[in-house]
Amino acid sequence: MKIFVQETETDLAALLQKLGHEVESYPATIRYGDLEERVHQGDLVFWNQIPPHGFIGSKAHVILMSATITDTQEYAAAKAGALAYIPDHMPEHMLKHVIESVAKGETWITRHTIARMFDEYAKSMDNPQVS
């Protein structure tokens, strides 16, 4: 498993290397679709925004990072296909748990967001759109 980090995230890259991970940097100006050409199944990508087409169908597991996290932003990230939504600066021991979880395909989002997603799904099943 390789971990992709934006080239400006030098502290994060150094921490990930310290934790024993293979890190590859990508330019800040790259589009997610172009980065998708470089990743392999099961790689991790640290990203800092939700692209227009989201992350659904990505070969990589996406960890979205932000300076501030709100319930609305976390919900949007989860709906877009990110498996985790974390603060830009996270303690090393917590980051290690996030990586381990996401590498297994698990989510690292709040229970509130998971419940909101289940509620939305259940409502959509109760009210299917007629074509």
Short description:
With 131 residues, the protein is an alpha/beta fold. Helix content is 40%, strand content 18%.
What does this structure look like?
By secondary structure, the protein is α/β, with parallel strands linked by helices. It has one domain: Rossmann fold, CATH 3.40.50. Helix content is 40%, strand content 18%. The protein is built from 5 helices and 5 strands. It has helices spanning 10-18, 32-36, 71-80, 92-103, 111-126; strands spanning 2-6, 22-26, 44-47, 61-66, 84-87. Strands 2-1-3-4-5 form a 5-stranded parallel beta sheet, with helices on both faces. β4, α3 (71-80) and β5 form a beta-alpha-beta unit. α3 crosses α5 (111-126). The chain is globular and about 50 Å long. The chain starts with a strand and ends in a 5-residue tail after the last helix. The model has no long low-confidence stretch (mean pLDDT 90).
Key descriptive features of the protein:
131 residues, Rossmann fold, 5 helices, 40% helix, globular
What would you give as the CATH superfamily?
Response regulator
The oligomerization state is single chain
Number of spatially distinct domains: 1
CATH architecture: 3-Layer(aba) Sandwich
Number of helices: 5
Distance between the termini: 42 Å
Order of helices and strands: EHEHEEHEHH
Radius of gyration: 15 Å
What is the CATH fold-level name? Rossmann fold
Strand content: 15-25%
Output mean pLDDT: 90
Helix share, percent: 25-40%
Beta strand count: 5
The biggest beta sheet, please? 5 strands, parallel
Q: What is the CATH C-level name? A: Alpha Beta
